[in-house]
Fold each of these.
Amino acid sequence: MKDGTPDIDPVESQEWQEAIEDVIARDGADRAHYLLDKAVQQARAAGATLPFSATTPYQNTIPADDRLEIPGDSEMEWRI
């Protein structure tokens, strides 16, 4: 595994991966996302410590050319 935790049951891990692939193929990625979110909620409710994810549904709808320039000295602020 990426974080160094050993996979104590590779067969079960493969079954979970195949199940998610099947959901995506049958019902789409949105359904798989829903199921994974529910699984994460249940794991956290049961006391599992999971990595924080800062992913949000936010999408900037302002084109780069229309963004206002922020006042101040950005180089100086970056150094601070």
Note: Residues 10-27 form the longest helix (18 residues).
Amino acid sequence: MELLYRARAALCTLYCTVHERAEGGATSRASLHFSPLQVPVRRRRRRRRRRRRRRRRRRRRRRRVLVRRPRGPSPENTANQTHISELHWWLNGPKRKRKNSQCSLKSMSGYIPSYLEKDEPCVVCGDKATGYHYRCITCEGCKGFFRRTIQKNLHPSYSCKYDGCCIIDKITRNQCQLCRFKKCIAVGMAMDLVLDEAKRVAKRRLIEENREKRKKEEMVKTLQNRPEPTGTEWELIRLVTEAHRHTNAQGSHWKQKRKFLPEDIGQSPVAPTSDGDKVDLEAFSEFTKIITPAITRVVDFAKKLPMFSELPCEDQIILLKGCCMEIMSLRAAVRYDPESETLTLSGEMAVKREQLKNGGLGVVSDAIFDLGKSLAQFNLDDTEVALLQAVLLMSSDRSGLTCMEKIEKCQETYLLAFEHYINYRKHNIPHFWPKLLMKVTDLRMIGACHASRFLHMKVECPTELFPPLFLEVFEDQEV
């Protein structure tokens, strides 16, 4: 036919040429009664459309046939099954890619128990099995399908379009839910092992309780296995504790021997400082009376410590100037009384927050009171306070030191003995040691804040109000 159309077109062209030469003018195709090219083009287009539609229908029919088993036990079933397995590329080919279930992908890269053989198949669909689920070796996909079906009671609503004769494998398992569920039952998956909502919640709760119990047991075991002080460390701890007790005013009887500062003192600030706070000169004079004995006790404590006297005299002075306010703040903070909300300074004078603030310390008083509140929860004994003071004293990062390595080794010795003592005395309290070490940072911040505060007080207050030892210790400190 196509040849015929081309011949007719050639004749038409020839006719136009001859007619044009005969009349001596141009003749358009539109003037002709019949255009032989128009009809064939339209027909070809229609035929192409019909062929495309037929091909699409054929593909749809073929896909429907490939995913199901022929009805009835005919002898051709074996051949058809072989045909189906050979033509699975229709489902996984480049024109139509079907994704396997997420559970199947997860099972391929997930944990495989040691009791399974390598690449052992699922008894339901043939995918890679991940273990025993509901008494059968199955993959994650079939396990989840069976569990959801039982928990939500979905199996009564399942139906099969092909009389229950569907093949269930890795590719076709999502095509028919009824046949898949029947195969799960046929291979031996137990419905009674699927937990309902109440049992699931109880099981999760039990698992969480067991996990928490195991964590606590491991923590207690770890704490119990921590090293305790050696003989040398016990001797060091004893010397440090004695040094603290001999230089700590009033000892453990400070509550009975303390005297409260009168309430009218420290409530009327009169001398403003450059940082905005005000100083009550009467309260400041009361504090200066006890500051010199407090500094003297810190110096005596340092002299009694092992290894401190072996350091050069210049380093001893630098260490004492750097830690004096920190140790005095620690001694005041451990004597915080939550009932009266007071700190006992130097073991004899009980003051409130506003009195200490207006007496010259300003914002430093808030930091000391906050430290006292937090240390009250630790319930520190004399040995722990003494070792904490020794750690503060032996700080190798003070500027101007000449024997930094030696001082650092001394601090490490005290820290190790301190940690072993905490393991011995408070081994059943989790995270006690790191929490206590964080207080060293708080005390260092108090010392730095007091150095800045001292500069303002020195400018605003009369020099004759400052005791000589107070000026000597806190002058020329780093801010």
Note: The radius of gyration is 47 Å.
